[in-house]
Amino acid sequence: MKKSALRYIIQIFQGRRPALRGADWYEILGFLELNRVAGAFYRRLCEQNLPVPQAVERRLRQICDQQSERNRLMGKWLADLSELLEFDRVNHAFLKGSILSHAGIGADGSAEPFYRAGERISNDIDVLVEPKDIGRVSRILGEMGFVQGYYDYRMNAVVRLERAEILKRRMNRGETAPFLLKLGHPSLPFVEVDVNFSLDYLPSGSGALLRSMLANTCIYPVKGGAGLRSLRPVDFLIHMILHQYKEMLVYSMVIRNKDLELYKLLDLYLFFKRGIVREEELCSRLSQADMNKPAYLVLRAVNDVFEDLEIGGLLDRLRPGDLSYLRLVVDPERKNKLYRWENGVLERLALFDHSACLSEVKAPQ
Q1: Residue 364: which pLDDT band, with cuts at 50, 70 and 90?
Q2: What whole-number distance in Å separates Cα of residue 192 and Cα of residue 175?
Q3: Which residues contact 211 (CB under 8 A, 6 or more apart)?
Q4: Is the CB of residue 91 less than 8 Å from the CB of residue 76?
Q5: What is the pLDDT of residues 314-354, one digit of tens each?
Q6: How far apart are CA 359 and CA 329, in angstroms?
Q7: Looking at residue 270, what is its pLDDT?
Q8: Contacts of 288 (CB under 8 A, 6+ apart)
Q9: Which of the residues 85, 108, 131, 298 has an alpha carbon 20 to 30 A from that of 306?
């Protein structure tokens, strides 16, 4: 898409009132939907009373309404799974959209969710556990009717994975193969649960940090509900940073365009703008965990997209001596083959195929 259109979208999220002449709304709508920010974009348009073509506003309203219904349905499954995990005393933390769309993680301690209904959706329920608890969580999900597999949209069916593939994914990734349950609801055809047991792209990565995070979980309030367990705010932010780092670093994520998705960058941007975590607390925790390098890469990318973030001082404190890693992508499934970015963050975000910006790094002779 045109850089001017991307900048227009970003400025809407910054609370500005930008003008855009000659907009290609086919292009803009497609970008908003594929980057899963259409609902949040619509809310910002309404707040700022910005004019858009009637057909575009109608479509954005439809998306927001559909996502509100999806949030409602997903909230019920979150509550059910939470109750079972708490009853079985499984040390766990719900992550990302499961908390941001349903629980009060704001600085004021209220039960108002980080995002309002319809602004943000999750394709799945992410839950973090220690490796030793994977079997217990798998049993709970199995008793709820979930199976490990993938959803075939053309067949409208859940396809089970072979046991060999399930074991392969567990051995080579920091998460299990997805657990799915078909519902058949038009707004939520199936529920997916991803069980994470590592903070790295490798199954054994960052074990000490993971245990430390799970030893200090807390319950965030839910309107009309029993609350949801997750990481305390500074660890929640660090997990979002590490998750984004993993997706920017690993080749299999890049070829699926998961390395830069605007909704994840928006999560991080808003977390800082709302002042939920103090800079000093974040720096201290990152230094303790030896995570300055991944944090610098991710926060620099967020700052490149949202230029009003005002985190220059934080970036200076996190900046490592060697910056060569910033443009590298690794393929762990092919003997850690390396690639290099040839374009900056904004240029890649505006493209449909991010991998077109990669070039292979030749091994030294």
Answers
A1: low
A2: 13
A3: 130
A4: no
A5: 999 999 999 999 999 999 888 889 999 999 999 999 999 99
A6: 10
A7: 96
A8: none
A9: 108
- pLDDT in the model for residue 289: 92
Q: What is the tens place of the pLDDT at every residue in 140-197? A: 999 999 999 999 999 999 999 999 999 988 887 778 999 999 998 988 999 999 999 9
Q: Which residue reads 């980057």 in tokens?
A: 35
HEC string for the chain: CCHHHHHHHHHHHCCCCCCCCCCCHHHHHHHHHHCCCHHHHHHHHHHHCCCCCHHHHHHHHHHHHHHHHHHHHHHHHHHHHHHHHHHCCCCEEECCHHHHCCCCCCCCCCCCCCCCCCCCCCCCEEEEECHHHHHHHHHHHHHHCCEEEEEECCCCEEEECCHHHHHHHHHHCCECCCEEEECCCCCCCEEEEEEECCCCCCCCCCHHHHHHHHCCEEEECCCCCCCEEEECHHHHHHHHHHHHHHHHHEHHHHCCCCCCCHHHHHHHHHHHHCCCCCHHHHHHHHHHCCCHHHHHHHHHHHHHHCCCCCCHHHHHHHCCCCCHHHHEEEEHHHCCEEEEECCCHHHHHCCCCHHHHEEECCCCC
> Strands 157-160 and 228-231, how do they pair?
unpaired
Residue 186 CA to residue 205 CA, distance in Å, equals 38
Confidence (pTM): 0.94
- The Cα 63–Cα 111 span in angstroms is 24
Per-residue pLDDT tens over the stretch 84-107:
999 999 999 999 999 999 999 976
